[in-house]
Amino acid sequence: MPTRTDSYDDPTTMLQRTSASSSADAAAFSGPLVAERLSDQLAARLGGQIDSGLLRPGDRLPTEQTLAATHGVSRTVVREAVHQLKSRGLLRSRQGSGVYVTQAPPAESLSFDLTLIGSIDDVLRIREVRRALEAETAALAAERASKSQVAALRRALRAIDRSAVEGRDGVEEDLAFHRLLAEAAGNVHFGRLLEFLEQYAKEAMRVTRRNDATRTEFVEAVRSEHAAIVEAVASRDATLARRRAVQHMLGGDRRMRTAVPLAPTPRSPRR
Predict the structure, then answer these.
(1) Which domains does the chain have, with CATH numbers?
(2) How does the average pLDDT of the chain come out, rounded?
(3) 44, 35 in Cβ contact below 8 A?
(4) DSSP code at position 109
(5) Over residues 169-192, mean pLDDT
(6) Residues 6 or more apart from 20 whose CB is under 8 A from it?
C-alpha cells in the first residue's frame, strides 16, 4: 500500500480571524519550527490553535502544502502531525473533501507522556501493547480480507522492497503495510489505535532500519516475516496469521535491541 497522504483542499481557511485578539493568537501559532521532533511540535501548535478557538469545530484544515510553508517544515512532518491529532480525536478526514476539526471529544483522549519515552526499553514496552493489537489484527484480516485487499498487501510488500533497493529506510512503507492490514481486519478501531502507537515508535524504527540496511540477514528477515503474514491472510488461516504477526513483532524487538540506541529524551523531574 502506498504511503497514505491526506487531502487538504482549502488553502486559506481559518488561520486569519478579524479580531485583534485572534490576530495575536495567530502570531503565537506561526513562524518556522526549529528543533527535533518537528511533528510533535507541529501537532502541539495545531492542537493549541484548536484549544484556543483559532481552529473551530467544522473548520477545514489548510492544504498540506500550505501548512508546510506556513510552519517551515516538510510535508512529511505535516502528515505525521495530522496523524497524531487524528489519533487524539481532534481531526477527521472526509473522503474527497479534506481534513476537518472535530467537535470536542466527550472524554479525555488517550495519550502517553513523551518525557517517559527516552530509551529503547521504553519503546519496547509500547511495542508490547502493539504486539497484541497486531496479532488480533492479522487474525481478523485472515477472516475478513477481500481479494482486492490481499492484492493491496502484496503491492505493499513490493513497495517495501523498492524502498530498500532505492536506499531508503522504508519506515513509511512499513507503516503503510500495517495500516493496510488493519483495514483488512474490518474494524476501524484497530487502525486508529495502531496509528496512535506509531508516533511513539517511528524514530526507533528509523534507527533500527539504518542498522538493518547494513545487515543482509536483517533485511531478509523483515521481508520474510511480512510475506509470511500476507500468505497466512491469503490462505484464510487466522491462527497462523496471528502467530506470524507475533513472530514479526518479536523479531522487530530483537532487531531494535541490536540497533544504535536512541538518544535519551530529557525527563521531567519527579514531583
Answers:
(1) 20-101 (1.10.10.10), 114-258 (1.20.120.530)
(2) 76
(3) no
(4) P
(5) 88
(6) none
Cell of 89: 480525536
Cell of 85: 491529532
List, for residues 201-242, the tens digit of each pLDDT value.
666 666 566 655 555 777 788 899 999 999 999 999 999 999
Nearest residue to 218 (alpha-carbon basis) of 255, 250, 248: 255
85: number of Cβ within 10 Å: 22
Lowest mean pLDDT among 69-73, 192-196, 227-231, 248-252: 192-196
Q: Which of 191, 175, 177, 176 is nearest to 140 (CA)?
A: 191
Give me the helices (H) in 29-166, please. Answer: 38-52, 64-71, 75-87, 120-144, 147-165
The CA distance from 79 to 64, in Å, is: 8
In this prediction the pTM is 0.58
Take residue 8 and report the three cell numbers written for it.
487538504
Cell of 96: 474527497
